[in-house]
Write a structure and sequence with these properties.
The protein has 379 residues and is of the alpha+beta class. It contains 3 helices and 29 strands. It has helices at 2-58, 253-256, 290-293; strands at residues 75-78, 83-84, 88-93, 99-103, 106-111, 114-118, 132-135, 140-143, 148-151, 157-159, 171-177, 180-185, 188-192, 198-201, 215-221, 224-229, 232-237, 248-252, 264-267, 272-276, 279-283, 298-301, 312-318, 321-326, 329-334, 337-345, 352-358, 361-366, 369-374.
């Protein structure tokens, strides 16, 4: 009688512990399921926060630009017949209305229907290529990667005597302020003084006001000289001595997010604009407040904002708008709207390398030609 009772008791005890174990397993799996859900939710929240942060980091435009993909934003106009040239590095329209192109083969001039080429092979240009152009009201200057040239009265280009006073014979850019010629070279910038000698502006003579000697692009606006170089941008108020670094403002490329190399500089009468291989950048401090409230804050506009491409080759201000040259065509920024310019008729080369303007005409230099559009037709 006692043995069956003992067996029954053991059996009941085993069933009890099996039940407890089963309940524990059920609670374990329920708890794991909750933890997995919480983990997924946490991961989802973290992902959303990451996406939001990324959106904030990239969407840095200070104002809403119009959608360039909309039908009202795309403008179709007539492009002129292209005039064949070598790849164009720079364009200039002189006071007489003649268009000059600095190309990889020398110089090309266009006056009405007359096209003239100047080259080393023809004996009318001293070097194999031309990089940049400037006209001081009296003479036409051409910068090359081998020295400075000037056009003579008999319509030939010769190596300029004053070239020897430049800090380097590798000339990347030229500009003119009134009658003063400025040059940006591989080893500093310089301006031509009244004695016919270039005065060098470099790291040494400015006591590091100019942060880098390689001046890829130079620009003059109001009382400011701007140099784009390998460390960013340096701006000098020319009303004061260049040797005093207190009269310089600098924008460091790493801190400000400035993409190198700068391909062009434009001034709209209030703000400075910069073209780069990754879009157009806008300096948010107005030029007239450089001394009082200068903040090196740059805002970027690129393809995601409506430009035809990220790489910008040239930028100019013309007729109240900014004109943008890219490898994928032409665009205009006006009244907070980016507008793509496409040909209604005529041949069109997408890879635009240089821009110049005169009157209503905007001249385009491409990798194989020069042509123009009438900007009066755009509006």
């Amino acid at each position: 009688m006692t043995e069956p009772t003992t067996t029954s008791s053991k059996s009941s005890g085993g069933t009890f512990w099996l039940t407890i174990l089963a309940i524990a397993l059920v609670f374990y799996f329920i708890n794991e399921s909750k933890n997995a859900g919480t983990s997924e939710q946490s991961q989802s929240i973290n992902q959303e926060q990451s996406d939001t942060t990324a959106a904030i980091a990239t969407d840095i435009a200070p104002r809403k630009f119009g959608d360039a993909q909309g039908p009202s934003a795309a403008l179709q106009i007539t492009f002129s017949r292209p005039i064949k040239t070598a790849a164009v590095n720079d364009l200039l329209v002189d006071p007489s209305g003649t268009v000059w192109a600095a190309t990889e083969a020398g110089i090309t001039s266009i006056q009405n229907d007359q096209v003239t080429n100047y080259s080393l092979a023809m004996g009318t240009f001293p070097f194999v290529q031309a990089q940049c152009l400037a006209h001081d009201g009296r003479q036409l200057w051409a910068g090359t990667l081998f020295g400075l040239c000037v056009m003579t009265e008999n319509k030939r280009f010769i190596s300029a005597d004053v070239s020897s006073s430049l800090p380097s014979q590798m000339i990347w850019d030229l500009t003119v302020d009134g009658a003063t010629l400025w040059a940006g070279t591989q080893n500093g910038a310089a301006f031509l003084d009244k004695t016919g000698t270039f005065i060098t502006i470099d790291e040494h003579t400015t006591n590091s006001g100019l942060r880098h000697n390689w001046c890829k692009r130079i620009f003059r606006m109001d009382s400011w000289f701007v140099a784009a170089h390998d460390s960013g941008l340096s701006l000098w108020n020319t009303s004061f001595p260049a040797a005093n670094p207190e009269w310089w403002k600098n924008i460091d490329h790493a801190r400000a997010g400035l993409i190198r190399p700068v391909t062009g500089i434009a001034y709209d009468g209030k703000f400075l604009w910069i073209s780069t291989p990754r879009g157009v950048m806008h300096l948010t401090t107005p030029v007239n407040r450089f001394f009082s409230d200068f903040v090196p804050n740059l805002v970027s506009y690129s393809r995601i904002h409506g430009l035809p491409a990220d790489r910008i080759n040239s930028i100019i201000h013309h007729k109240g708008a900014l004109w943008i040259a890219t490898n994928e065509g032409l665009a205009r920024i006006k009244n907070d709207t980016i507008q793509l310019i496409s040909p209604e008729s005529g041949n069109f080369a997408r890879k635009i390398r240089a821009l110049a303007s005169s009157g209503d005409l905007l001249w385009l230099g491409t990798d194989e030609a020069v042509q123009f559009i009438n900007t009066a037709m755009v509006d």
